[in-house]
Amino acid sequence: MTLAVVPEQAVRYATFLLGGEHYAVPEGCVREVLGNVAVTHVAAAPRFMRGAIGVGGKPVAVVDLGSRLGQAFRSTAARTVVLVVEVHREGQPMLLGLTADTVGQSVELYPRDVVAAPSFGSTSPMDSFIAGMGRHGEGLVLLLDVDRILSSSELLAAEEFAACAELTPGSRPSRTNLRPV
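Above: the chain sequence. Below: its structure as tokens.
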């Protein structure tokens, strides 16, 4: 009896540039890539939240990914690209926007191309959502775990703040989004 050799399975990643660094997320979680999108500011939103956009008629929170990655990685370029990704909060899917400077090409990485991410230090939140580093061409790309960019409570807060955004110019907020002062 001979054993069949099963080739390693490659995973496709969507790549993007943020603050001069290359990042990637699994292509399967990317729902849309929006360029030059107007992000509606949401008053009193958490610092990690850039604002909200409308996707399919529903409000979607947009995370300032540069802020989540720490001050050293903040870009000086205007972030005009939003990757809309599907994340899971307590097992339930939801959409989340991630800011980027530019979007690159998709890449295929085999398990042999991926190494564990180094520790970024006890004060860095990156340890919790960097899934690894992929060797691609002459460089490395940081692989993000989209389900861990925000904690469950942060996802809930982002969803609630996005629901308060007035996303259509000239429209009025629904009464369910208004709270008495």
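Helices lie at 65-68, 126-129, 152-163.
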